[in-house]
Amino acid sequence: MSFAVGGALALHAIVPLLALAAGPDEVIALDEFVVTSEKATGYRATSAITATGIGTKIGDTPLAISVLTGEFINDRGLNSLQEALNSVPGVLTNPRSESTFVVRGFGGNITYRNGQYRRQTLTDWNIDQVEVIMGPSAIFFGAVRPGGIVNYITKKPVFSGDFVDVKATINDVGLLRGEVFINKVLNDKLALRAGVGHINEHNSDYDHFFRRETYVGASAIWKPTANQQLTLDLEGIKRRQFYVNAYGGRILTNSYYFNNPSAIAAMRKSSSASSDTKRWLGDNGFSTTIGLYNMFAPVYGTRGAGYGYALAADSHNERESRTVDLDYLLKITDSLVFQSTWNYAYDHAAGLQLSDDDKKVYADGTMRVRYEDWMDDRRSQVSHNKLTYRFDLGPTKHTVQLGQDFQFVRYTRPGYLDSSNNFNDAPGKTGNSPYYYFNPAKGPILLEPMRAVSGQTFNIDRVTRTKNYGYFLVDQMSAFSERLFVMAGARQNRFTENYTYTRPIANVSNLAVKDANGLATHDSSAAKGKVTPQVGVLVKVIPGVSAYSTWSKSIEPVFAVDSDGNSSEPVESESWDFGVKTDLFGGRLTATAAYYSIERGNLAYYDTVRSVNGKTYYLFGNTEASEGGELNVTFTPIDNDQLVIGWSHLIDAKTTKAEGSNPLLVGRRFGYTPENTLSIWNRYSVSSGPAKGLVIGFGVRAVDGAMASQSLDTAVYIPGFIVYDAMASYRFKVAGREYTAKVNIKNLTDEFYRDNADGYIGESRRIFLSLSTRF
Q1: Among 118, 129, 258, 259, which has the minimal tally of Cβ within 10 Å of its Cβ?
Q2: Radius of gyration of the chain, Cα coordinates, nearest whole angstrom
Q3: pLDDT digits (tens, 9 = 90+) for 241-261
Q4: Which of 133, 59, 52, 149 is nearest to 476 (CA)?
């Protein structure tokens, strides 16, 4: 925290110097630091804040930026951030992990809310717009994956008037959803917004499914003077639902082994289903290294393998998130603005699920499992201080940002301390826990009785403390009557991490330091970090057509220490982007076409040769790479018709060096990285005549087939698919009040398909009905 305070004081000290040096003022408005869907025209967003730290025209930014406006999200009836991102080219989602996305071939937790890292509960409550930066973003966000980041921006109070928005939604399989948002203008300096929402869902297509979610949010904007603005944003979300990974659709097996009488007769259930599969295949002359698993087990459910069929009837998870954002803007001169942001976030997650062999079956369809009872808590504080200075230098115009970031995260993982004083990160899957056998085709198993019999409870905590530090400087320059734009900057990054246990344990690293009570503390990082530069150039070739290129480096901390006490160097990535942007016919046709090449290097692999006698060593320098292109188009041929097209072509995403690992992985494509993904949505509004107020929409999503995994032992291919969505809404008046009734039909033709690396089955046709009004 002293770093954060010191950084803020340093920036305050610089303020008077910059004010004196400003010279002739170039006006900068506080409104530029706020980007909302109100500034968009339907589906077309003209500016974004995520890529540059200040509201900047997308057409003038040398990056590929995809923006989903609030109007687009509402029209399509997108009920989660995950669902919304299926409309963005180059982004892949997974229902098992709502906060993990794959962008340009590289996955990770890359989600932000109002520019602050967001770990979980990514619903669509109060979303104003979603911005996806494809490619470089290391200047403003520090340690990030090289593919890009996702930032969603929430709605804030507006000063245009008082109103209340009410919306209710149902669907054909048991969804009930309601939400109310209030906007209140107290005076010309203070406006408030507050909202509540609740979901109660019982999906009749899925055994035992339930979801209950409650949202509460509030925000305020206060403008004490014309040159100051304070924004407060509060949010709380609580969710409890059935665990999606308890459905059997992702169970893998081998076609020669599964349901084979010979394999059934030779089964040895004293070992895992994985081991038994490998043993039987080897005994019968089949390969045990390549293609060990080549199919999904085809025995569960009515619409296909595992669709809606629960393996455990009482599997569940719960999540709770609370967030406080405080943002202060001070306009010191017409050319100089100071911004200070503080964020506090609390995330709690817990669950009861199947463990061990929950993705494999014996030849007769039996599974061997244990239960897993898990929990974690994450508390974080972030401070961000920045000066933005605008000036002219000869024929060039500059917007310079100098900033400092500090993040502190306290992550608590409750675990189970067994009779040997070993720490286990979850009760139920410890070495002395019993296995249970059952055949899912005959009915689901219950986990609660397993937990009761085990007697294992949470009785110890592992507490991890992480600190991230950063300073950055970036200049956005324009020249030649705004035909040339340059964005250049760099960030200094530093990281530290250590973890402690609340009770003495036996299985602690030999590098850990113990206090007088025997409590161990392990420094897993020696504060290693590097500078991440970024340079981008955009040239307006002819009116309405621009060409751009961006080069950048990024890093990711690696919190690992070998047995000699050597800290790991961070993962380093280098990327190139080349593209063309258009803004033609008075803004009716905007498009971005991009080509990218990314190399992710210095990956650490476990050194199997040197790691003996309880010691741990790593091999560094391994690399991965991805290459591809994207196209994003928004077209308004006439005033009441809008078309959005997103296409991604992932040429390759692969391992390029694997020292210390299997050399056959080199050149092998990552798991579930389809070559092509396509999203199209068209909306037409009737603006006159007897059908005035009617809006219709139609869309398609197409995804190529891909291998489920990069692993050599998995030869499962997930077929490509095409699904269609449709929408119709009608605006009408009753007793002088305007209402909007809307129907969304998702998966219109009721296609059966698998969508992601785990093979989860996409939902069948869904019909959603909603009614909304404003008071």
Answers
A1: 259
A2: 27
A3: 998 878 877 788 999 999 999
A4: 52
